[in-house]
Amino acid sequence: MISVKNLDFQYSKRAMIYNQLNLELEVGKIVGLLGKNGTGKSTLFKLMSGLLQPKSGSITISETDPFRREPSFLSKLFFVPEEFDMPPIRVRDFVKNTAVFYPRFDYSLMNELLKEFSLQDGQNLKGMSYGQKKKVIIAFALATKAELILMDEPTNGLDIPSKNIFRKIMAGHFEEDQLIMISTHQVKDIDTIIDHLVVLDEGGVIYNESIFDLTQKYNFLTISNENAVDAIYSEAVLGGYKAIVSKQDHEETQVDLELFFNALISDYKQFF
């Protein structure tokens, strides 16, 4: 589905963002894309969408060059950017005017998701808050049933109840022939819905594994004494420590994505 090979990219004369980045992903996954500020998460989505062109190397999506922006390619892709503009029209008119570009668009699903978010199709986008508009575009993205859906910071602007609804609809409206990638700084907003993790740092991909593989290699523990276990990585918390240890038995623990991300950024080579 996605093949990125030896990708280099920089904005004008600024420092190189990617240096020989490589990434392979197939359909049937909800992928969390994590990285520090400035590591190029949004840039990668723009490159995958064909909004930017690599300096060198290549990106192909289903064997298509995104930068060519062919209609057949665009009908299979939907990109939810962090910042966006919406026309000053009713939601139903936005759907009517835009859904025609997506052959698999599900109008019933769109209406269902609007109800989940407590929105009505007669509301005018002009009078909506940023958070309400974000809900509309998330609902629209899922209703396209596009083969590739890219979401950049989708939970920004959502209140806590809306974030819970977001997790619910993401888990309930994903099909096996789709690939959904979610970039976020709010790790806890996606830790229960992703089944694959990609982490960017130092101009490339430093981690690209399934959550299942992660559970088979490591246990995530809360301990009272930092020296009680032979931890690969630990952090102080109220009343003790959170720790990552090599898996030594068959018991699985809940993955702490935020802790694991911090451990990777600290020294990712210790996990390989």
UniProtKB/TrEMBL annotation:
Record keywords: ATP-binding, Nucleotide-binding, Transport
Keyword Mitochondrion attributed: no
Residues annotated as domain ABC transporter: 2-227
Molecular function GO labels: ATP binding; ATP hydrolysis activity
PROSITE patterns: ABC_TRANSPORTER_2 (PS50893)
Domain of life the protein comes from: Bacteria
Protein name (record): ABC-2 type transport system ATP-binding protein
